[in-house]
Design brief:
CATH topology of the largest domain: Sortase, Chain: A
Strand content: 15-25%
Number of domains: 3
Strand order of the largest sheet: 3-4-5-6-9-10-8-7
Shape: rod-shaped
Number of helices: 3
Structural class: alpha+beta
Distance between the termini: 148 Å
Number of strands: 10
CATH class of the largest domain: Mainly Beta
Length: 303
């Protein structure tokens, strides 16, 4: 048996032949792989007969000869998976677009809310809650001088609302509020208190809460009893146009001039409505010891 030579002992020609043999073995393995996968490869019949400087040609052909190789049959399952993955990708892109649009809408909404929060809002005054009946209503006093509020004047369906408004807080005293009323024609000089409830009118002339302060634009609504608790407004029917009504605050006096006097029903609360100029309205029960109507005196601020 011939001794196997080491690579250092081989000649150049022997090394070249070994390299050709090795390449041929690799090509055979590759051709065998092609056959297993359905392809047919034709090769030159004798690689050994080739010149050592030439490489063996390899030509891939289909079974029929020189035509192009046929593609592998598609796997239906793989095709279905590809379609599913494509659908998932499309849905993901659409979802991303929706998220971006929602984010832009949310950002726009937040910017609008911030601008609205920073914007100075115009303060709208709370409208005056009008009374159901005019103040100072009461039952005529008996022989002992006893009397009580006349709830019969109030429509039955409105009595719960009147009761709920009975305990309106008295505002804190301010320098612009009236503290005294004087009517020279009636020789009247009396204090003014805030509020025209039953207890307030025991102490003096009551100013309707929410009505204007003396000297300001609006209607100063004042009321008092005519036959109980000092009978302060007993003689309002004697006032004539041109008579003076002097209202004092802690700072100054304001003189109002009487315009007219009217008799109205207890529910004629429109006489208490605000006005665009400084006015005063005096309200009391009428007639004396009957008290089924109201006498109302209107006056305007003297220029």
């Amino acid at each position: 048996m011939a001794r196997k030579k080491a690579p250092e002992e081989l000649s150049v020609e022997e090394l070249r032949r070994l390299l050709v043999e090795k390449r041929r073995g690799a090509r055979k393995e590759r051709l065998e792989h092609f056959r297993r996968t359905g392809r047919v490869v034709s090769v030159a019949p004798d690689l050994l007969g080739l010149d050592s400087n030439q490489s063996a040609p390899i030509v891939d052909t289909a079974e029929s000869g020189g035509s192009a190789p046929e593609p592998l049959p598609e796997n239906p399952r793989r095709k279905l998976m590809d379609r599913i993955l494509l659908g998932v990708e499309v849905l993901a892109v659409l979802g991303l677009i929706v998220v971006l649009l929602n984010g832009l809408g949310l950002l726009r909404t937040l910017n609008t809310e911030v601008v609205a929060a920073l914007k100075q809002e115009t303060v709208t005054p709370t409208p005056l809650v009008m009374a159901v009946v005019l103040p100072s209503g009461h039952k005529p006093p008996d022989a002992q001088g006893n009397t009580a509020p006349n709830e019969a004047e109030i429509p039955e369906h409105l009595r719960p609302m009147v009761q709920s408004l009975a305990n309106i807080p008295i505002p804190t005293a301010a320098p612009d509020q009236g503290i005294r009323i004087q009517i020279p024609a009636l020789n009247l000089d009396a204090p003014i208190v805030q509020g025209d409830g039953w207890e307030q009118l025991k102490k003096g002339v009551g100013q309707y809460i929410g009505s204007a302060d003396p000297g300001h634009d609006g209607n100063v609504v004042l009321s008092a009893h005519n036959d109980v608790y000092g009978e302060l407004f007993r003689y309002l029917d004697r006032l004539a146009p041109g008579d003076q009504i002097i209202i004092s605050t802690r700072q100054r006096q304001f003189i109002y001039i009487v315009d007219r006097t009217v008799l109205v029903e207890p529910t004629a609360v429109e006489v208490m409505a605000s006005t665009g100029s400084p006015t005063v309205t005096l309200v009391s029960c009428y007639p004396y010891l009957v008290d089924n109507q109201r006498i109302v005196v209107f006056a305007r601020l003297q220029n």
